[in-house]
Design brief:
heterodimer; A: 130 residues; mainly beta; globular; B: alpha/beta; TIM Barrel; eight-stranded parallel sheet; 38% helix
């Protein structure tokens, strides 16, 4: 990848794990491995600028109606450490308003290394049910 | 504690303008026992120290389940609970958020038990704050505090008299779950004492056990979100009472702050009150002018948790409607729903209005210095 930064060995990132680092010592990013996929985001919440990638990873409580409620997306919900906005990984979109999303960065695996680019990509909007 | 080298070299007399006044921060003891040791007799001797604090800070109850135990996740430290370490608090509040002066709202007490016990807990809280956050931690003078008082007016006035003239006490706090509406005459001695000592009166939501104190207007809430979303209803009841009982006629120098109830609700409410005053004024003759006029002159609202309309420019219209003199910035540090982005909510707001909201209004109301020492470290 042109203009990419080596973040870590690919083996250093376990399933459900993350690395918070700064690209070139400047741009704070979070690199996650979710469902076998390595994804990277700017460590910046679109709501109020919190270090979103430093939140807890867990699930979201959702309801299919009535008194029914259950845990969904377990291990894939990144909860912002300030205001608890819930982002679904690996997409990086909020579960209630998918137009609010973390800024996703390009990732490549090169020679056993995770390489992250600093220019955001815009993936297609996924269909998410809350 | 030795200050960082680069700060220690700064010219000690250097001052900078106060641009951001934070009207709502919370600090905590590292352990409940720190607070318990300030409990006055006879409560200490009766075993209240062990009863209330031995297992932790049981004196403060918690309802429902706000995220992260109610605090932003990055404010927890190995040194103690959020808001308990002056260095971490100073970094997150002064350096990262950019606050110049912060008004402490102490929540570390048990609210509304029996009034005498409440007075003892208020005294312990005030004494602990006096020793620490506006004492040993406050060499820079950037912390000001709010005095906790009992809901019993006589006990409240005694506590106000005890602290009158303290250079860092700028406000007293009435518990909004006061067992009555603030305009009632029983609270007038508190207002009289506050005005006499040039102190603002404020109110701030306190944590309560589920029960009548958390009633919505028509029943107990099931969820934290119900309680949290209805702070404006509680505050509008007290504001209506203050207006209709003529409190601001009786105390023309009284300034009142509604803290953590937001702002967007105020003007639609006042539109209704102004209309009804024209029709029903005769039954509340102490209310001599339009309710909105008293609010503009006497009442302010801290912004957090700020309303978030889909079109952020709508907030600018709300500010323009009521006038910027009634709105003040607050972060609510270290709580989970805090307003830590000081750029937020000002789309379409003129720069001079933003300066007023971020600091100018609070400097005037609390009679703060318009400058502060450039350094923020202290001799703790």
């Amino acid at each position: 990848m042109r203009d990419g930064y080596v973040v870590c060995d690919v083996d250093a990132l376990a399933e459900g794990g993350r690395i918070i680092t700064r690209l070139g010592g400047q741009i704070s990013v979070g690199v996650f491995k979710i469902d076998g996929q390595v994804v990277a985001f700017r460590n910046y919440c679109p709501h109020a600028g919190a270090p979103a990638c430093e939140g807890t990873l867990g699930g979201a409580v959702v309801s299919d109606g009535g008194h029914e409620r259950h845990l969904a997306h377990d291990g894939r919900i990144l909860k912002c450490p300030w205001h608890a906005w819930e982002f679904l990984l690996p997409e990086g979109v909020t579960i209630t308003r998918p137009e609010y999303r973390l800024m996703r960065l390009p990732v490549a695996i090169e020679d056993g290394k995770v390489v992250v680019g600093s220019h955001p990509v815009r993936p297609p909007r996924p269909q998410v049910s809350a | 504690m030795t200050p960082p080298a680069d700060i220690a070299l700064a010219e000690p007399q250097a001052v900078v303008d106060v641009q951001i006044v934070d009207g709502d921060i919370h600090v905590n003891p590292r352990s409940g026992l720190d607070l318990a040791d300030s409990l006055p007799e006879p409560w200490l001797g009766r075993g209240y120290r062990e009863l209330l604090f031995a297992g932790g800070l049981l004196g403060t109850s918690v309802i429902f389940a706000p995220p992260n135990e109610g605090r932003r996740l990055d404010s927890f430290t190995p040194l103690g609970p959020p808001g308990s370490d002056p260095q971490v608090t100073g970094r997150q509040l002064f350096d990262e958020t950019g606050v110049d002066v912060a008004i402490i709202i102490p929540l570390a007490d048990k609210s509304l038990a029996n009034p005498e016990h409440e007075a003892a807990m208020a005294a312990a809280t005030n004494a602990w704050i006096g020793k620490t956050w506006v004492g040993a931690y406050n060499g820079h003078g950037r912390y000001k505090t709010t005095l906790r008082i009992s809901t019993d007016p006589d006990l409240a006035v005694a506590e106000i008299e005890r602290w009158a003239g303290h250079p860092h006490v700028v406000q007293i706090m009435l518990n909004p779950y006061a067992g009555g509406l603030f305009g009632e005459k029983k609270f007038w001695p508190v207002f009289e004492a506050a005005v006499r000592h040039k102190l603002v009166v404020g109110t701030h939501i306190t944590l309560q056990r589920p029960g009548p104190a958390l009633m919505s207007t028509y029943g107990p809430p099931s969820y934290y979100i119900e309680n949290h979303g209805q702070f404006p209803l509680l505050y509008s009841a007290h504001l209506t009472s203050l207006l209709c009982e003529g409190v601001f006629e009786q105390f023309p120098d009284l300034r009142f702050t509604f803290i953590e109830g937001g702002y967007g609700w105020v003007l639609p409410y006042l539109w209704r009150m102004d209309r009804h005053w024209k029709e029903l004024r005769r039954e509340a003759p102490r209310l001599k002018r339009l309710p909105s006029e008293y609010v503009r002159e006497h009442v302010s609202f801290t912004r957090q948790p700020a309303e978030e309309p889909r079109n952020p420019r709508h907030l600018a219209r709300v500010i323009d409607w009521l006038g910027p003199q009634s709105l003040e910035y607050s972060s609510d540090y270290p709580h989970w729903d805090g307003d830590y982005n000081t750029q937020f909510g000002f789309t379409g707001v003129p720069p001079e209005v933003r300066r007023q909201i971020m600091g100018g209004n609070a400097i005037d109301k609390y009679r703060l210095s318009p400058t502060r020492p450039a350094r923020h470290w202290s001799t703790f």
